[in-house]
Amino acid sequence: EKREGRPLAILDLALPRDVDPAVRDLPGVTLVDLESLQEVLATTEAGADVEAARGIVTQEVGAFLAWQRAAKIAPTVVALRSRADELVDAELARLSGRLPLDAAARAEVEATVRRVVDKLLHTPTVRVKELHEAPEGLSYADALRELFGLDRAAPAAVTTTPLTLVEDDS
Question: Largest CB tally within 10 Å, which of 22, 106, 160, 165?
Fold first, then answer.
């Protein structure tokens, strides 16, 4: 009565359905439910679009899961790099007091030491990122934490065990 002949579309995507299918028989009422959508998809080219969309969703879910696994390894990689930076800084500070180097020589020594450390860490860093795809991937991150003495209690916090400097008089 109040609709005054205007059409009414009802969308029911609930399982089980919320709307009685008999409303479809009322004049001016169009009911779109899961059953009618399935019929449309089966009889039109939209089915191909649905399959393409499923493929996109599957691909994106895979990418998201890979990102999540990588995010679990990132704190270990950051902790390893931080630990290396601490060691380099400590050794450069120790060397600074022992060798009379001018600023240019000191900068060259520092750059060389950092390059060597970066090159040493490059392969393990790249490999742990590659291997995280395997089912045992996180165990590689555990191995890095164990081998390099990184803090196992809080890898998510990207912390390392305290660095203790030992003076070497030799």
Answer: 160
Q: Which of 92, 85, 93, 89 is nearest to 158 (CA)?
A: 85
How many degrees, rounded to 5, is the angle at CA 28 between CA 27 and CA 33?
100
- Pinpoint the alpha helices (H) of the chain: 34-43, 46-98, 103-131, 137-147
> Looking at residues 16-26, what average pLDDT do you find?
93
Classify 127 as helix, strand or coil.
helix
Q: Using alpha carbons, select from 82, 110, 86 the residue that is nearest to residue 96.
A: 110
pLDDT for res 75 = 87
Read off the pLDDT band of 148 (50, 70, 90).
Answer: confident
Residues, the chain: 170
